[in-house]
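Work package 3, deliverable 3.1, input record:
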Amino acid sequence: MKQQLVLSVEGYSKAFSLHEQGTVIPSAKDVNLQVYSASLTALVGPTGAGKSSILKGIYRTYLATSGQLFYTMQSGKRVDLVQADEHTILTLRRNEIGFVTQFLHFLPRQPTELVVAQPLIQRGRPVEEALAVARDMLAAMNLPRRLWSISPATFSGGEKQRVNLARGLVAKPRLLLLDEPTASLDPITCERVLRQIEELKKEGIAMLAIFHQPELVKRIADRVVELEPPLNGQTQLEDIA
Amino acid sequence: MDEVLSVRGLSKRYGQGCPACYELTGPRFETNLCPRCGSVVAAHDVSFSLYQGEILGIMGESGSGKSTAVKCLYFDEPPSAGSAEFFDQGEAYQLFDLNNAQQRRLANQRFGMVYQNPHLGLNFDISAGGNIAERLLMSNVDNYAQIRQRAISLLSRTEVLAERMDEMPRNFSGGMQQRVQIAKALATNPPLLFLDEVTTGLDLSVQAAILDLILEIQQQSRTSMIVVTHDLGVIRLLADRTLVMKYGRVIESGLTDQILEDPQHAYTQRLVASAL
């Protein structure tokens, strides 16, 4: 399959201005990277290097401090995710860009299978059909069947992570962001997740993922981007104002 | 996506007003009381758009102007300045240019309002079913059997026992009164719903049930909603996008997860930090 440029991160920086403390905390600094269809770009580097900040910036959970995030939409149109209006971002989140975060956020009181089916329902798939796809994915993620009909609220870390992955993977977005997808998984489930990721690659999905284990990176990544923590530490807010 | 509502520069001032009112109030001066003339600038220069099926949160503390903005849009209060355009069934309405009869028609048929205080939204002198019937009658549904059937289906949707539809709202618990209010607001299948602190003051379990109901309505009917609240939890659960208001101004707006995880304004940072 021909690989096409899906996302180009150009000079992306993120710093947090904390008003109460009067400080600026730098996170990602001048990051450049590309993500292509049918391939996985791995983000590696020590804690504090701003890996998650990049993913959150792409998803617009964080506002970029500077730089551009050019995303090529399904329609072929190129949009800068830093500048795009909120409704464009919401539409992209629903239809094209998926994010498996480190922690599962879910609507309370919803059964697990419905949590996982949600991205499909939001795109207009009939509920029963979406639930069937969700159950298949939960099985693939090795989550015990008895847990499917209850809320993930009481699940263990590893169980929540499987739900999180299942929800991210059923959506089959064009661009999938993964923040340490295998962090709290046992080896068997980890292997299943890697196979799913390989499957998604074959289907043409572009992925940007944070990994810590070098052996995983070696196996699954087509490109590796290594990040360094910002050299200068925090500064006073007024210094840069 | 289709735009349902476009609000531009909405302002509401109580008092005689003077040219300095807007310049000398707001977050920068930490007041919404004009120091020159004593007028209260309840809301100033509020602008936003709302799309079909979207829930917009307006967050802020008491006196921030969040309810005032919604009350102007529902015609409870006339605005001092600004415009609001409502797009419905191929028509565009300049809300503040309409005459009273036109405004009443929209409020009765195309908008729904749920107040924090059920006394504002419900007529306590008539039964729960009667409250719903009243709204349907104003929308020119006048077949008795049809009205009763619709009331039963609305009350069962909001989980109020149909057997109790002939009881007076005062016999109901606070949570039940809110459900009747929501049923009444939904009676005409309005494309736009205003929810003003609807869960404030209710038991946690009742709050949860009401919030679930609101989400269910949004998913099933693609109703656009404006949710006014001081509660970060409600915002997190319901809203796609959020405006943060303080001293009558919008100080920050964005996607809800961005507002909660990467707030820009000092006030929002303090608010989010104190909630977690």
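Residues 204-221 of chain B form the longest helix (18 residues).
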